[in-house]
Write a structure and sequence with these properties.
Blueprint: E1 5-6, E2 17-24, E3 36-37, E4 41-48, E5 51-55, E6 58-62, E7 68-70, E8 76-78, E9 86-93, H1 95-101, E10 108-110, H2 116-131, H3 138-157, E11 158-160, H4 169-185, H5 192-198, H6 203-214, H7 218-236, H8 241-247, H9 253-264, H10 268-277
Parallel strand pairs: 1-3
Antiparallel strand pairs: 2-9, 4-7, 4-9, 5-6, 5-8, 10-11
Helix pairs in contact: 2-3, 4-6
Length: 279
């Protein structure tokens, strides 16, 4: 499993927005991107095709013409293992710029919940920002669009929690270390209490830290990793269901069956049968 890395986003002086363009051909397998995090806010905006985003253990499909905002310090990557055509942008807004415009940004979590009118307005701003050339006075215009965009995002989908104190670099690193540990050891007999003991932390403190930092419990994350790898085995191995369950850390067939059905709304055996009949 890949370690989670901190991505330091570089930019030119006075450039507070970095726009990355992706053009993946239909027969091209996308490069693997490790799980990572950064301080910048990042907007994922597909213009052709769709992308599958992994964020803090959750899978989010971002369709063409939609966008998704990745919060500061959110651990994420992209799950695109099959060749497919994709074009789109990643727009990164410098955290210090956001903090300058809104000093309470540290207390903000963006929900990505919008009505159709808000979404249309924000997509229009994204298009205007992307279409502006970064030459001459264009950088000033781009920064202006970014400021308006941030204001609209704050007004439309920000939750402000002044009690939030878990966004420090130290606590982010603890969460990253825990996730790395689970990613490597998910197939072993690990539990939240076992992990707390391994890291010499109280169970209550670590459970609260992990939940507030990722939006899910440690148990949910452990199960998510086990399911993710079990699904790969269902697709690519000749193991039976019990063997797949035990190989990926589930205590027995019944627990695998129950957790799998909760996530995918069908049993693993039915899932495997569906795969066999799919061309």
């Amino acid at each position: 499993m890949d370690n989670i890395i901190y991505e330091k986003i570089t930019r030119s002086p006075h450039q507070y927005v970095k726009t990355l363009y992706f053009d993946i051909k239909e027969d091209q397998v996308p490069d693997k991107i490790p799980k990572h995090w950064h301080r910048s806010l990042e907007l994922i905006y597909p213009t052709k095709g769709e992308t599958l985003l992994w964020e803090n253990g959750n899978l989010i499909s971002v369709a063409q013409g939609e966008f998704y905002l990745i919060n500061s310090r959110s651990i994420h990557t992209f799950i695109n293992k099959q060749p497919r055509q994709y074009q789109g942008y990643a727009i990164q807004i410098d955290y210090k710029f956001a903090e300058l415009l809104y000093p309470q940004i540290e207390d903000v979590t963006f929900t990505n919940k919008l009505d159709s009118t808000q979404k249309e307005k924000l997509v229009g701003l994204l298009d205007s920002l992307i279409d502006t050339k970064n030459d001459g006075f264009g950088n000033i215009v781009i920064n202006g669009y970014a400021a308006v965009l941030l204001g609209e995002l704050l007004g439309a989908m920000a939750i402000v929690d002044t009690r939030k104190n878990l966004r420090s670099s130290k606590n982010s690193q603890v969460i990253a270390d825990i996730i790395n540990y689970i990613d490597v050891n998910f197939a072993d007999k690990i539990s939240p209490q076992f992990i707390a003991d391994e890291f010499n932390l109280s169970y209550g403190y670590l459970a609260r830290l992990f939940k507030e930092g990722t939006g899910m419990t440690m148990k949910q994350y452990i199960d998510a990793q086990r399911l993710e790898n079990a699904v790969i085995d269902l697709h690519s191995s000749n193991l039976n269901i019990t063997q797949i369950a035990l190989k990926n850390g589930f205590s027995d067939y019944k627990s695998f069956d129950r957790i799998f059905k909760e996530r995918y709304q069908l049993k693993p055996s039915a899932y495997k049968e569906k795969l066999a009949t799919t061309p």
